[in-house]
Write a structure and sequence with these properties.
Organism: Streptomyces acidicola
GO molecular function: DNA binding
Pfam family, one: BTAD
CATH topology of the largest domain: Arc Repressor Mutant, subunit A
Strand content: 5-15%
Radius of gyration: 23 Å
CATH class of the largest domain: Mainly Alpha
Distance between the termini: 34 Å
Number of domains: 2
Largest sheet: 3 strands, antiparallel
Protein name: AfsR/SARP family transcriptional regulator
Structural class: mainly alpha
Helix content: 40-55%
Keywords: DNA-binding, Transcription, Transcription regulation, Two-component regulatory system
């Protein structure tokens, strides 16, 4: 079985056939278990994540009924009852979130060793895993903060790789939208300015810098940081800086993630959940 929690929660069997998981509470329960694959999750935690601030009067009984419904939907062996709670019989490689994390690490490592082609492939594939907001079926959005931040980080790294491959014309429109959506993100502003420069639009690059400077000054009361200021200096004095425009790459086909299991990441995921929880009292 494979589970998707980067978007509305879903499940697929080993042949890639979608298994219906109906109802928001059932999907919230599956999300809470999939966040901790192969680990025991206590009833109190599951109740908090399924019902948030409005649990039913007999919440433990309601949870047991919901567990029964999830087993009927996915198969009895997929949810294991253990001392202290319940466990999803899965590994991180069965969950799209952890596949995404593995691919991001792979892409960033490739970028660090000056292999932008491999970085671009890995990061395009990682970002294609997303189908919507992370952990969309959980009422409390706190747990979604980290994967959403990593998604933006992966986007920045993917664009960096594409710029190094000479694909500036492909990313200019996207960067304009991203810089507007994240007005205080200096890295995105710098990528946007570089992309404009690399397409021969020096005047537009200077205008983009001035726009970023005003946004930072008006919104945060600060000037652009050293990286943006150095980029501005290069734009003003292009002949004083040795610069070779990246040559376009013709490898524009980006593989999409495949539904087969991936090997378990060598580094455990960093979500701050306990390995197991104590047994509830009598």
């Amino acid at each position: 079985m494979r589970y998707g929690i980067l978007g509305v929660t879903q499940a697929e069997d080993d042949q890639g056939t979608r298994i219906p998981v109906g109802g928001p509470r059932l999907r919230a329960l599956l999300t809470a278990l999939a966040l901790r694959p192969g680990r025991t999750v206590g009833p109190d935690t599951l109740i908090d994540e399924v019902w948030a601030a409005a649990p039913p009067a007999d919440a433990p009984a309601a949870l047991q009924a919901l567990i029964g419904r999830l087993r009927r939907a996915l198969g009895r062996d997929t949810i294991v009852s253990e001392n202290g709670g319940y466990r999803l019989a899965a590994t991180p490689s069965d969950i799209d979130l952890f596949e995404f994390e593995r691919l991001v690490r792979e892409g960033k490592d490739a970028l660090a060793r000056e292999d932008p082609a491999s970085a671009s492939r890995a990061l395009h594939t990682a970002l294609a895993v997303w189908r919507g907001p992370a952990l969309a079926d959980l009422s409390d959005r706190t747990a979604a903060t980290r994967p959403e931040a990593l998604r933006l980080e992966a986007t920045r790294a993917r664009i960096e790789a594409d710029l190094r491959l000479g694909r500036a014309p492909d990313v200019v429109p996207e960067l304009k939208e991203l810089a507007e959506a994240h007005p205080y993100d200096e890295t995105l502003h710098a990528l946007h300015i570089r992309a404009l420069r690399d397409t021969g639009r020096g005047a537009d690059a200077l205008a983009a810098y001035e726009s970023a400077r005003r946004v930072l000054l008006n919104g945060l009361g600060t000037d652009p940081g050293p990286a943006l200021q150095a980029l501005h200096t290069e734009l003003l004095h292009p002949h004083a800086h040795a610069y070779s425009r990246p040559q376009p790459s013709h490898a524009h086909a980006y593989p999409q993630p495949q539904p087969q299991p991936q090997p378990q990441p060598s580094h455990p995921h960093q979500y701050p959940y306990p390995q197991s929880e104590p047994s509830p009292g009598p």
